[in-house]
Specification:
Strand content: under 5%
Largest sheet: none
Helix content: over 70%
Shape: elongated
Mean pLDDT: 75
Number of strands: 0
Radius of gyration: 17 Å
Low-confidence stretches: 1-10
Length: 131
């Protein structure tokens, strides 16, 4: 959890309580932004996806949230014809997924992200190898 210091001006709320409330909201918002960016890869500009993800503090995501975030970036880079960046993000997603509790049964979606990015970049032979 990222620690944020806050000062409470409201009577009855300590600085510690205010800080804890801000940290709780931050912990809730980061995964929501990552999920929204993942959905954007299906509908919006790929540049918007990358801009959205640039605002996310990955330290506020659990391993599965990071997997989804890296997957969104991987797909966006692949569709933009930037396969090297797509592969880098796919590898980061793989590492995050491997370390997550869900990693044992969610490796297939990650492979799908990686394959999709390679195909979108025109690297079909590599996509077949990954799949």
């Amino acid at each position: 959890m990222t620690t944020t210091n806050a000062s409470a001006d409201t009577a009855g709320v300590s600085d510690e309580q205010a800080t804890n409330a801000i940290n709780a909201v931050t912990d809730i918002i980061a995964p929501v932004i990552a999920a929204a960016a993942n959905a954007e890869t299906l509908t919006d500009s790929r540049l918007e996806v990358l801009a959205t993800m640039a605002e996310v503090d990955y330290q506020n995501l659990d391993r599965y949230g990071a997997t989804m975030a890296y997957g969104a970036e991987s797909m966006a880079y692949g569709e933009l014809g930037q396969p090297d960046q797509a592969v880098t993000k796919a590898l980061e997603a793989d590492e995050a997924l491997t370390l997550s509790e869900q990693g044992k049964f969610l490796r297939q979606p990650l492979t799908g992200f990686h394959t999709f990015a390679l195909v979108a970049a025109g690297r079909v032979a590599e996509a077949v190898d990954v799949a």
